[in-house]
Amino acid sequence: MEQEGKKRIWSEYQKEIADDHYFYVRSCIRQTFFPGSETTFLKILRDDLSRDVFEDARHTTCTGIGYHTDIVPFETIMTIAARHFALMTEAGYVNFVPSCVTSFGIYTEILDTWKHFPEMEAKARDYLWTATRREFKIPDNLSHTSDIIYRFRNELAELSGHRLVNKNDGKPLKVVEHIGCHYAKMFPKCGVGGAEFPAVLSGMVEAWGGEVIDYPERRHCCGFGFRQYLIKANRGYSLSNSKKKFESMQPYQPDFIVANCPGCAMFLDRWQYTIAEMEGITYDKSGKGIPVLTYEELAGLIMGYDPWVMGMQMHQISVEPLLDKIGIVYNKKDKYLGSKGQYIGVPQPPHFLLQ
Amino acid sequence: MGRLYERLCEDLRCLEGLKSCMNCGVCTAICPSAEFYRYDPRKICDTVQRADDESIEQLLKSDTIWYCGECMSCKTRCPRGNTPGLLIMALRKLSQEMGYFTDSEKGRQQFAIRRVIGDSILTTGYCMRPILVNPANHPEQGPVWEWVYNNLPEVMDKVGANYLKDGPGALRRIAPEVLSEINQIFQVTGGQDFFQLIEEFSKDKADEMCLDAGELGGDNAYFSEVYTKNSGNHH
Ligand code: SF4
Ligand code: SF4
Prior knowledge:
The complex is a heterodimer. In chain A, 46% of the residues lie in helices and 7% in strands. Chain A is an alpha/beta fold.
């Protein structure tokens, strides 16, 4: 009964996700912490799914972190967004795909504002013309990169060599899915499944054989809070909110966490380390921490991509226990080598977390 | 109705964020900041809704408006469709325009954000890039990040980034002609003036506190003060 109710609500929040020909814009945070995830997304789309994805080297930050730390005015960010739409228009594309959840939220906010206040759209056109002599069309489709992977989840399941199943006992892996707040909390209709029951990650996990954990603080913010992390004096805010989530998910013993926002994935990884160093606590039984993945890494794993080429060595929490459970063959020795196989040193072991 | 209230109402985010608040407190119940700080978005809505300039001025000069994390969780749950987080953005904008932000410890932090994120946008085309996450300022990033940071070109190459090189790809160098378009947009839309305003008010405050704010970057006493100072009076 309860499941039926949920399905009905989800059906009201089915968004349209373009099938091909994407104009791709990168994320400052994902490029910084998970650049291999962006590489993986493009490889999956182009090589495995034969889709056309175009990237224009002239795109920039959306200035979203500046906007949400309140140093960039709305008029400025909407014109930066307009410039990106202009690059898309000039390249002959209509489907706009940002890699960042903060950016995705910003584009949805700007498009919504223009709908309700057409004079703001006119202003954006005017500003953009004055500043750059560019013109733009509004995208036909705005989808986050996680929407795109969601759209192809069943095709990927068919192509994949791995399932999210524990090879030792044949049971589905237990997964915490974390959706970045700005994916759908502001504009529920813009996200698959809305804000209360987002399906974008749970849909992937279930299609690939895993089991999603429904825990009390599932929808709580990771605690980024923009200025609350960027300024050293405020970081307790960020840490405390992640801690609240870890404590809430711990009894369900998740095998891993997957996030669609690059900031969330980084924080949920790093704060486990910090809490371990500060308090000697880990949230898994083995003392190694709960691995935190981006959805691109997750898709790449089931497709058999090399975890070290995807950049999973950049995580603080070791991913090997998860790779072992799925039965992924990897070369432990290669983990910290450079691109030409050269030795570039190894990270110091943490004081408390086991490796 | 006073002057500050009218200026707030000119900001679309105030119009969109606060239609009519019934003071139910649902936003406060869901708010991650309300759990951490002495902060109550319901009260913010109430203060603004009363349109009393004196209380609004107090709010603009306080730490309170800087506690929000702009997660927008409040938007999803408000039975009236309000977004206290958007209202906060309008309040912060006005606080900076009026120069009130330098009256509070949390408000003064805007100087550090403008210097780091603001400069990064204008000079590199990125809000955030690896070199800004210096392990010395970010011990929470842990030893793996320190290893990444010390081996950026090699690690980035291995994972398929185009680190500081021309052409498309992750962490590519953004061309000078692109940066000039971005700077032009900041000029035309008032972004540049707003940065300047934050600088000027901050420098006045730095003078008042007998601290040097330098001309660029974070290597100065005022930056260190605002970046690290935590009086502990926020909970
Ligand atoms: S949830 Fe909405 S109506 Fe209730 S106090 Fe908050 S802003 Fe006002
Ligand atoms: S946006 Fe601000 S006020 Fe709203 S829930 Fe998040 S932290 Fe609280």
